[in-house]
Amino acid sequence: MKSLFKEKTEKYIILFISFAVAVSSQLYINAFADSFRISIAVILLPLLIMFIGEDTSTVKICFSTAVMVFAVRATIHFIYSGSYRGTLQLYYPNAVFYIAYGLIFAILCQNKHTISYSRLYTVLLTSDFLANICEICITHSHTGFGKISGIILTLAAVALVRSTVAWCILAAERQYTALLKREEHEKRYQRLFLMTTGLKNEIYFMKKNSEEIERVMGTAYKLYENLSDTNLAPEIKNMSLALAKDVHEIKKDYIRIIKGIENEISEDYDEKQMKFSDLLRILKDTTYQLLESKNITINLVFRCSDDFATHEHYELMNIFKNLVTNAIEAIEGGEKGDTITLEQALVEGEFIFVVKDNGPGISKRHLPNIFKMGYSTKFDYVTGNIYRGVGLCGVKATIEEQFGGSIEVDSVFGEGTQFTIKIPSEAISFSEENNKL
């Protein structure tokens, strides 16, 4: 069934190309003789061969086109003259042109999928020129070939113009397609990068929690040991031992999950370093996409005064994504002209990052608690769920524990909020020249 479907599809493609070229061949000018026509169809033919006939035999297309062109011109001749007399002599050279074009094209272009730009231009030019020679030879066969030598340069010029136009269109289409692929690749790259950033952040907290699980397991086992020296019922002693064992199993499952996620991340994404300016570009693009999905208008101003390369791009992305997202949620539904600013500079061996917004600010009651684990002012009125509140806590932990830096917040209720982050330059940057060595 698949082969039958493919065969039918190929026939429809051939018929469509043949009919389109035959109709466009009626736009022409006569040259050298009334039966020799210069038509724009020779520009359309290679375009259709390469666009929709890429998987179809060029020879089949051009043979079908030759028949269709002859049939269309013979029919028009009959409509105007009321007779088919002389149609074969008048129009079969035109059909020969398309047959010759297809044969030459097929010989010179063995694979339409992989042919280079430069070779494709040569194929178009050679096919057009030699097919014209074949047609003009048949047209002037009864008058001798002496006249043909006088129009060779003209035929070459016609072939050059038509081939150049067709090649430019084909090249433009390929460039446009390549651009779309690059844009799609960039979007996938951004989505993968952000997903990896989120997973690495979750792994960080899972590892911290596994340490807590280890502590609970140790405490449970100590409880069992202490109870063993008492006169309590054996069921109570065994219960404490079972608790320690269950916690140990939970820890093993936790570690397996962490390793599984780490393996998937390392296999799917192999970006080892990144420029901070590139990180900001991804953050800006994806944030504008988020704003568009929420139908919110907020101006983003990101400035990178002292660019640097870093291996810590996941952690930095997580930090600034959290801060920018929090700012969006704080000023969501505000007035036009709301702005979120992210600025970066290197001052005396420290990178200083400032994230600020002109939103409603944070109240004095909430301000001392925003970095505490589990604290959150966000509430989903649809589901009734309170957000878990690990974003800013995670940001603070990353900055202080991993980078040895600091984070401060300054907020004026009703005016806006500013986060100031200071990180030693050696904690997040490296020399690309030294890295290459």
Structure description:
This protein is of the alpha+beta class and 437 residues long. It is 64% helix and 12% strand. The protein has helices at 2-24, 41-51, 58-81, 87-108, 117-139, 146-149, 152-228, 234-268, 276-294, 313-331, 391-402, 425-428, 432-436; strands at 28-31, 33-39, 274-275, 299-304, 309-310, 339-347, 350-357, 406-412, 416-424. A hairpin with a 1-residue loop joins strand 1 (28-31) and strand 2. Helix 1 packs across helix 3 (58-81), helix 5 runs antiparallel to helix 7 and helix 10 packs antiparallel against helix 11. The longest helix is centred in the middle third of the chain and has 77 residues, at 152-228. Mean pLDDT is 80; it is low at 379-389 and 433-437.
The poorly predicted ranges are 379-389, 433-437
Cα-atom radius of gyration: 37 Å
Strand/helix succession: HEEHHHHHHHEHEEHEEHEEHH
**CATH fold descriptor of the largest domain:** Heat Shock Protein 90
What is the overall shape? Answer: elongated
Helix content: 55-70%
Which homologous superfamily in CATH is the superfamily of the largest domain? Histidine kinase-like ATPase, C-terminal domain
Count of discrete structural domains: 3
In the CATH scheme, the class of the largest domain would be Alpha Beta
> How does the major sheet shape up?
5 strands, mixed
| Proportion of residues in β-strands | 5-15%
How many strand units?
9
Q: Strand sequence of the main sheet, in spatial order?
A: 4-6-7-9-8
pLDDT averaged over residues: 80
Tell me what the CATH architecture of the largest domain is: 2-Layer Sandwich
Gap between N and C termini = 59 Å
Number of discrete helical segments: 13
Content-based structural category: alpha+beta
